[in-house]
Automatic annotation (TrEMBL):
Catalyzed reactions: jasmonate + 2-oxoglutarate + O2 = (1R,2R)-12-hydroxyjasmonate + succinate + CO2
Organism lineage string: Eukaryota, Viridiplantae, Streptophyta, Embryophyta, Tracheophyta
PANTHER family for this protein: OXOGLUTARATE/IRON-DEPENDENT DIOXYGENASE
Regions annotated as coiled coil: none
Organism annotation: Arachis hypogaea
InterPro entries for the chain: DIOX_N, IPNS-like_FE2OG_OXY, IPNS-like_sf, Oxoglu/Fe-dep_dioxygenase_dom, Plant_2OG-oxidoreductases
Protein name, entry field: Fe2OG dioxygenase domain-containing protein
Entry's Gene Ontology BP terms: defense response; negative regulation of defense response to insect; regulation of defense response to fungus; regulation of jasmonic acid mediated signaling pathway
Family: Belongs to the iron/ascorbate-dependent oxidoreductase family.
Cofactor(s) this protein cannot do without: Fe(2+); L-ascorbate
Amino acid sequence: MSNTSPDWPEPIVRVQSLSERCIDSIPDRYIKPPTHRPVSASTFTSTSDANIPVIDFGDFLGTDPDARRLVLQKVAEACNDWGFFQVVNHGVRPELMDKARETWREFFHLPMELKQKYANSPKTYEGYGSRLGVEKGAILDWSDYYFLHYLPLSLKDYNKWPSLPLSCREVFDEYGREVVKLGGRLLKALSINLGLEEDFLQNAFGGEDIGACLRVNFYPKCPRPELTLGLSSHSDPGGMTMLLPDDQVAGLQVRRGDEWITVKPARHAFIVNIGDQIQVISNAKYKSVEHRVIVNSDKERVSLAFFYNPKSDIPIQPAKELVTPDTPSLYPPMTFDEYRLFIRTRGPRGKSQVDSLKSPR
């Protein structure tokens, strides 16, 4: 089943449909160059028990100042060492997390003709999609997705949200409200750790007037997982990402040096990572980190990536408090809209997107 929207450079093929009919091979369009495959000569997947830190966030919300300081210290270490961490006891109900994930799983198992009603275009990416970037002939990722806006309210359009499964809009609405609250709490912790006022990052993002959106990733079973990726290596362009992973199947990998570490999700944890906009505001004190997704031949995966972003038209630049003669500003001002347009035409490209913004020195 393909969608021939004139806005895409080629007809869109749903990976889920390919998965159902591919027995022992995959189309060439999905075969990565040897150096970009899950196992390559230049990087390798770690077989160690290494994992991104798991942080109990409950004490940050409590009244014990020493316990709060300890949480902040763990968050700071995770941001410096990994750019990624997991949070538990974060204030979002476990039942809501499970309900949101499983409701989206149900959506992806609806008949194709129902899903096709929500087919997206590269103008906004909102809706049901199967590719990122508009380069004709590009090598594609083994995944379908659904993208929608929560904030600002002017972009929130229920007509672009699925109407099935029943009650899904209520579930997605509540989930969005709770994860936005969590994003505000996490930004406070990051601001404090950068030596800034606790509301600094929130204000730099636009105060209450932030951007928030969700991409639900569906990774169908793949008969040749060693040849492809569910999502190519990239850093997240926005401010901060809170990922609700599949609770049954691992797949997210985080780059550390020449190693890819497969994240082992803690139960009812969110996986949090620094985005390119916080790298810019922190003047690279905190860095966004490359990550990718591998697929497997036995099980599908569903994950919910919630992006907590700056308001689209505010110039984002290094915080003046973090710019000194010894640490000059690394980045010119650029709005998130300008940055998003810059990367959307190119698709996922490791860390090259944000690194190419650095001011000439």
